[in-house]
Each structure stands twice: as structure tokens, then as C-alpha cells.
Design a protein that fits this description.
Length: about 270
């Protein structure tokens, strides 16, 4: 049986607080439960999940320099040399540091057209064959060279929408413009259905957001949503995935359903 193609997904929304990073980690954990091998690439300079997920962030990422900042400054090394282990043997991490913002500023000052093929260059065919999924968690900036690079090497982009936040819906205009530009260089990229986070079942706002999003986005909306829960904040405080902190919770079960839905969608397209 031929090996399934590595699926590269960039998670996007230029509005902060919608659950991009939370989704990246917990979605990856749900995939790992299905025995999928996953690489999470943290492109957010806040580095919150990098410092939480890495087995030893200070040693491996900071002291040994295995991070995306040093990868971008390297002279042609494979990204494999900068990947670190996590608490889940099925999940590997290309970690971020607080220096990533300044690195991106330096990159923007360059005029070399190759700056838009960074991950294609660093992610060799052999590296990609080590994973079933590669997930890019992106920063909330409207203009990010790193987000653009991630999209240029991805098969899919995935818009995360906070069900109780109208601004996260309005922000789609910016992402649409970015995707239109990306498709000129990466015509194979496709949208996954929208994921609604912080969903409140008895809220008219959440129900309306789901209906509007289903009409506004050509890709539609996943039926599975991520419920609003203070358990998520507690898992953040404990620096754990929701699957570690509250494995039997509705939120953990919801991410498992989302992982199943994503797999089915990709298989059928």
C-alpha cells in the first residue's frame, strides 16, 4: 500500500484570541491518539506553546538553539536539525522563541525572492516523509513573512473563528487577500471547513455565527465545534494540552471529533 501523502496545514486568523495555538496543539494531540505522526511548527514569537510542549525548553530550544529562529538564520541546514521532542512521542516540535519577531523584521528587509520559499527549502522530502501531518501555528499579525511562507508550502489553510467574536469573522477579508496572493504561487492550496471555537450551545450569537460563516466561506463549516470552557484556561495555566489536563472533558472529545472530521474531509478531496 502506498504511503499517504504528508498533509501540511496552516492555521490562520489575523485576530488574536480565537484559539489558533490551542487548536494547533490539541488537534495535534488528537491526531497522535490516532497514531498519526505530527510536526507542530510554532511561528508565534510569544512561544507560549513551545515552552509548554517541549520536554526541556530551556535546554533544547534556548541553550542548544534548536528553534525556528536559528533555522531561519542557518545556511541551508535541514529543519530536522532544529526539531525537538515533546511529551507525546508522536508529536515533534519546531519551536519558537521571543527573538522570532526581530528575525522576521530582518527577513522583511531582504530583497531576495527566495525569502518566499523558506519552508520549501528547509523541509526536505525526507523530512516530510517522517510525518503524516505538519501543522503551522501562525501569529495574529496582518502581514507576516512567516505566515506567507507557511501558506506557500501548505496543502491546506484552516480559518479559526471564535463563535462569540464578531471581529474574528470580519478579519476574514484580510486573510482572503493573502490567500488570493498565495494562490498565484501555490495554486494547489485549498481551504478546510471553518472551525468554530468558544462555541456556546445556548447562545444565539454562536448559532448565528455558525450560520453566517457557513454562507460567507465557500469551504463551509465543520459540524464539530470547540465549546467554550474554563477547562481550556486551566490547561493553559498548567502548561498542558487538554488531553493531558482533562482527557475525558467535552473539549478533549470535541478535538477528537474535529481530528476525525479533518481526516475524512482530506481523504474525500
Amino acid at each position: 500500500m502506498a504511503k499517504q501523502k504528508t498533509q501540511i496545514i496552516t492555521i490562520v486568523c489575523n485576530k488574536g484570541g480565537v484559539g489558533r495555538s490551542t487548536t494547533a496543539i490539541n488537534f495535534a494531540w488528537s491526531l497522535a491518539k490516532k497514531r498519526k505522526r505530527v510536526l507542530v511548527c510554532d511561528l508565534d514569537a510569544q512561544a507560549n506553546w513551545s515552552s509548554s510542549l517541549a520536554i526541556n525548553y530551556n535546554r533544547d530550544v534556548v541553550e542548544y538553539g534548536k528553534n525556528i529562529t536559528n533555522l531561519l538564520k542557518s545556511s541551508g541546514e535541514s529543519a530536522s536539525d532544529y526539531i525537538v521532542d515533546t511529551r507525546n512521542e508522536k508529536i515533534k516540535l519546531l519551536a519558537s522563541t521571543l527573538m522570532l519577531d526581530s528575525t522576521e523584521v530582518e527577513m522583511k528587509s531582504l530583497l531576495d525572492a527566495n525569502i518566499f520559499r523558506l519552508f520549501t527549502h528547509f523541509f526536505s522530502r525526507k523530512l516530510k516523509s517522517d510525518f503524516d501531518y505538519i501543522i503551522f501555528d501562525t501569529p495574529p499579525q496582518k502581514s507576516s513573512v512567516l505566515t506567507l511562507n507557511a501558506l506557500l508550502t501548505s496543502n491546506w489553510y484552516w480559518y479559526i473563528l471564535s463563535a462569540e467574536d464578531q471581529w474574528s469573522l470580519d478579519a476574514r477579508v484580510v486573510i482572503k487577500k493573502i490567500i488570493d496572493d498565495v494562490k498565484k504561487l501555490n495554486p494547489r492550496i485549498k481551504p478546510l471547513p471553518i472551525l468554530l471555537t468558544k462555541y456556546v450551545n445556548n447562545s444565539a450569537q454562536s448559532r448565528e455565527m455558525k450560520s453566517v460563516a457557513d454562507n460567507k466561506f465557500a469551504s463551509g463549516v465543520f459540524n464539530a465545534t470547540i465549546p467554550y470552557s474554563n477547562i481550556i484556561a486551566k490547561s493553559h495555566s498548567s502548561r498542558q494540552s487538554i488531553h493531558e489536563h482533562s482527557p475525558g472533558s467535552l473539549v478533549a472529545q470535541s478535538y477528537d471529533k474535529v481530528a476525525l472530521a479533518v481526516g475524512r474531509f482530506i481523504s474525500s478531496h
